[in-house]
């Protein structure tokens, strides 16, 4: 019996090739989209889930309250881990880490004539109790015997020594400002897996960091990150309530943060906080694309339902005869579901081939390394998804076809019910509502990204490159004069417009300084300033304009000077600030200039209070190139760099690239949205094309009669097109409020955003109508131009 079901199903699919091809294309596209999105979602959910203690591993986060609201950060006092482990019984272990991301420029490792740039991390002995960081060679206990030990990642050791084994016991030279020195290689560790956010090359003893920076021993410091392993069964909400004022009670300072624990593995997907409360992050896009995958697959299923019910009249007699000879409704339902499942699994094969073909391109778009590996869990998920798709797509046609009365269909008096017509039209409206939402959403995302790319940020990022300060071969680090002379010498290179040194990252993390005093300060007016450390001439190099005052002095006097941005001075309430003196960290500085506000972070946040401090020995160099000679100038810079630091690769980054990295997720989402929106529209159009063909076939005699009595080709084409255009019009009316609500919610995450203008809806409506006309025009014109004699001769 089962064999007969499959045989009949196969014959029906072969018999009606147009129906089969349209459905295979639609289901293939839907399944392929779902598979690609599913692979991406699984990878996103897997990020940071690599530690055996994941369920009990937490990061301590801080909430600072100021006049701008509550700011959430990762920095904690350097003594917090030891105190929590000793004093809080719920804490099984705790570790203090100075993460690799804190050191924006990293350092340089030298061994013999070989030099390699390296990213460090400073950890304490508890680090290995919390995190998965397997030692491949050496004894990790020896890393903490004194402050002169270092462990290397296996790939880094191989690159430096030829093999990991050759590195054990060797002494390397590490150059990174205050952390410069000679270190013994005491271990080789396995690097973090691909699903980890942070990757580092070196592990140093945290005691070295604490020794070089006395501030880490103060409760007011917030440089390192603290990680906690809780004991099993701890109620995290109750524990967070208990520790909220822990740091405040230790130091007694009114501005100290409130702390709380957040799951370590949640920081990738749930990394966004607003006013002290977790409010989305990458999880927003994961949820969005989960819905997109479901909707695209649903559109493909709706196509199948509509096309199946539309051609039901051709199978009505088959149903009647089977019922007359004794076939029950259950067996008929089963037969039609088998047909659908056969078609769906055939589409699955095509979808898998399509995914394998486009996966390299998809990886380029998403920046991932996804693979279509046939693990049991993946195979089970794919089969389950296919079965679900087959049942969803085939259930309505199966129940609909099996419900025909044999007497009615054998007499030829089967009529399409009003309910069936409305159901079919409702499904078309639903399909195109989703398609219109996709089209409008893509347009809004594209405009917002274009706005971000073209917005005046308060400086000129075009033609700006930056690179690591060279590591000289004859000294531990560049002296102040050597740094200044190196940067000054770059300006003599033809094609270099300007150059300056700096520290931190112009578009990334900055030091945060509080406790600043100024004339007339309100004691309750306490907030943090972004601390941007720059060398001489930095503001001129990047094009940051001064509203008043002057730039830094080109000498040692610059250390006694400071430049605030406009937002900082407004928050301070300081009138006529130029020439006045402020104080922090026990030093006084004169305000010599007011910098025009500029966006030194992403456009998700408004400009924050900030100041510039003179720091001529920063670890990075910013160079503005003359337009038209960029490649030749970079080659000349490379030669100069090699004289200062032979063997160290000259790695240049364009500031434009840094800016794009701030919005990498949004740019990728924009590309993916265009791709999947196009496929959703394509699938909907396939269904519309098939319905137009069946409608034209069904009304073939009517069209012939109309042409005989004088109707023109245009009138007939309009007659066939009108119904579908009305349905798409209804879909547009339903979709626009959804677009308005959804896209306004997305745009609200940006401090600087485009307005939702009327032309977005106008362009979307025109596009939907044009797509509809193009889709159905072929069938309409074909039916309208057919010979009426052929139509009237048929039964």
Poorly predicted regions are 473-478
Report the mean per-residue pLDDT as an integer.
Answer: 81
- From the N-terminal CA to the C-terminal CA, the straight-line distance is 35 Å
Structural class: alpha+beta
The biggest beta sheet reads: 13 strands, mixed
Overall, the morphology is elongated
Helix content: 40-55%
Strand content: 15-25%
Number of strands: 26
What would you say about this model in short?
The protein is of the alpha+beta class.
What features would you describe in this structure?
By secondary structure, this protein is an alpha+beta fold. The chain contains 24 helices and 26 strands. The strands form four sheets. Strands 1, 2, 3, 4, 5, 6, 7, 8, 9, 10, 11, 12 and 13 form a 13-stranded mixed β-sheet that branches. Strands 18, 19, 20, 21, 22, 23 and 24 form a seven-stranded mixed β-sheet that branches. It has a four-stranded antiparallel β-sheet with strand order 17-25-16-26.
Write the layout of secondary structure elements.
Elements: H1 2-15, H2 17-46, E1 57-66, E2 69-73, H3 80-87, E3 91-98, E4 107-111, E5 114-118, E6 120-123, H4 127-130, E7 135-138, E8 149-153, H5 154-161, E9 171-175, E10 181-189, E11 202-205, H6 206-212, E12 225-230, H7 236-243, H8 246-251, E13 258-263, E14 273-274, E15 277-278, H9 283-310, H10 316-324, H11 329-366, H12 376-402, H13 406-411, H14 418-454, E16 464-468, H15 480-490, E17 496-502, E18 511-513, E19 529-534, H16 538-542, E20 546-549, E21 561-565, H17 566-572, E22 581-584, E23 587-595, E24 610-614, E25 620-625, H18 630-644, E26 653-654, H19 655-662, H20 664-698, H21 700-708, H22 713-747, H23 758-784, H24 788-793
Parallel strand pairs: 6-11, 8-10, 19-24, 21-23
Antiparallel strand pairs: 1-2, 1-12, 1-13, 3-6, 3-12, 4-5, 4-9, 7-10, 8-11, 9-10, 14-15, 16-25, 16-26, 17-25, 18-19, 20-23, 21-24, 22-23
Helix pairs in contact: 1-11, 2-9, 2-11, 2-20, 9-12, 9-14, 9-20, 11-12, 14-20, 14-22, 14-23, 20-23, 22-23
């Amino acid at each position: 019996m089962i064999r007969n079901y499959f045989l009949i199903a196969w014959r029906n699919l072969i018999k009606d090739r147009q129906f089969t091809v349209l459905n295979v294309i639609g289901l293939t596209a839907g399944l392929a989209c779902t598979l690609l999105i599913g692979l991406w979602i699984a990878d996103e959910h897997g990020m940071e889930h690599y530690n055996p203690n994941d369920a009990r591993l937490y990061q301590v986060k801080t909430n600072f309250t100021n006049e701008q609201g509550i700011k959430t950060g990762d920095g904690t006092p350097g003594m917090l881990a030891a105190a929590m482990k000793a004093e809080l019984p719920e804490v099984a272990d705790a570790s203090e880490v100075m993460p690799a991301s804190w050191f924006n420029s990293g350092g340089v490792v030298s061994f013999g004539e070989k030099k390699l740039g390296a990213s460090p991390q400073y950890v304490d002995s508890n680090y290995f109790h919390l995190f998965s960081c397997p030692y491949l060679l050496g004894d990790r206990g020896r890393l903490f015997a004194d402050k002169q030990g270092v462990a290397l990642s296996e790939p880094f050791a191989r690159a430096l020594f030829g093999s990991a084994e050759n590195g054990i016991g060797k002494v390397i030279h590490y150059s990174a400002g205050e952390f410069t020195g000679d270190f013994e290689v005491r271990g080789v560790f396995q690097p973090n897996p691909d699903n980890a956010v942070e990757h580092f090359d070196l592990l140093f003893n945290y005691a070295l960091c604490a020794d070089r920076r006395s501030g880490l021993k103060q409760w007011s410091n917030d440089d390192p990150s603290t990680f906690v392993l809780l004991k099993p069964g701890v109620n995290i909400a109750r524990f967070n309530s208990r520790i909220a004022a822990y740091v405040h009670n230790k130091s007694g300072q009114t501005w100290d943060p409130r702390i709380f624990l957040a799951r370590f593995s949640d920081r990738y997907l749930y990394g966004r906080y607003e006013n002290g409360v977790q409010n989305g992050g990458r999880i927003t896009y994961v949820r969005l694309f989960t819905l997109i995958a479901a909707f695209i697959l649903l559109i493909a299923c709706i196509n199948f339902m509509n096309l199946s019910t539309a051609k039901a009249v051709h199978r009505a007699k088959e149903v009647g005869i089977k019922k007359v000879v004794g076939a029950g409704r259950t067996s008929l339902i089963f037969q039609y579901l088998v047909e659908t499942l056969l078609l769906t699994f055939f589409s699955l094969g095509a979808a898998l081939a399509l995914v394998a073909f486009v996966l390299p391109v998809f990886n380029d778009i998403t920046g991932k390394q996804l693979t279509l590996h046939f693990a049991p869990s993946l195979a089970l998920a794919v089969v389950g998804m296919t079965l679900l798709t087959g049942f969803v797509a085939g259930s309505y046609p199966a129940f609909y076809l099996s419900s025909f009365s044999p007497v009615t269909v054998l007499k030829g008096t089967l009529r399409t019910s009003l309910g069936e017509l409305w159901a079919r039209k409702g499904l078309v409206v639903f399909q195109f509502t989703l398609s219109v939402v996709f089209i409008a959403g893509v347009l809004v995302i594209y405009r917002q990204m274009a706005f971000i790319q073209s917005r005046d940020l308060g400086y000129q990022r075009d033609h700006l490159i930056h690179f690591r300060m060279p590591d000289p071969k004859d000294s531990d680090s560049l002296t102040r004069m050597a740094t200044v002379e190196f940067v000054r010498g770059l300006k003599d290179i033809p094609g270099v417009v300007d150059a300056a040194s700096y520290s931190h990252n112009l578009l990334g993390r900055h030091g945060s300084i509080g406790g600043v005093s100024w004339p007339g300060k309100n004691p309750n007016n306490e907030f943090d300033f972004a601390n941007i450390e720059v060398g001489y001439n930095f503001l001129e190099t990047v094009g940051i304009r001064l509203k008043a005052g002057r730039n830094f002095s080109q000498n040692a006097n610059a250390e006694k000077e400071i430049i605030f941005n406009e937002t900082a001075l407004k928050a301070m309430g300081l009138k006529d600030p130029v020439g006045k003196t402020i104080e922090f960290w026990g030093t006084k500085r004169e305000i010599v200039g007011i910098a025009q506000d500029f966006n030194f972070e992403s456009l998700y946040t408004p400009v924050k209070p900030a100041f510039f401090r003179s720091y001529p020995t920063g670890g990075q160099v910013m160079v503005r190139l003359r337009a038209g000679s960029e490649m030749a100038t970079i080659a000349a810079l490379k030669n100069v760099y090699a004289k200062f630091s032979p063997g160290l690769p000259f790695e240049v980054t364009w500031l434009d690239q840094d800016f794009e990295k701030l919005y990498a997720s949004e740019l990728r989402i924009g590309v993916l949205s265009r791709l999947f929106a196009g496929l959703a529209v394509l699938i909907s159009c396939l269904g519309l094309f098939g319905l137009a063909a069946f409608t034209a076939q069904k009304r073939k005699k009517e069209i012939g009669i109309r042409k005989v009595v004088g109707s023109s080709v245009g009138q007939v084409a309009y007659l066939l097109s009108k119904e579908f255009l009305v349905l798409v019009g209804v879909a547009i009316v339903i979709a626009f409020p959804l677009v308005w609500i959804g896209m306004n919610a997305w745009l609200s995450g940006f401090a600087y955003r485009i307005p939702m203008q009327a032309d977005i809806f106008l362009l979307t409506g025109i596009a939907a109508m044009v797509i509809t006309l193009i889709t159905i025009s072929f069938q309409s014109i074909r039916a309208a131009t057919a010979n009426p004699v052929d139509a009237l001769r048929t039964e």
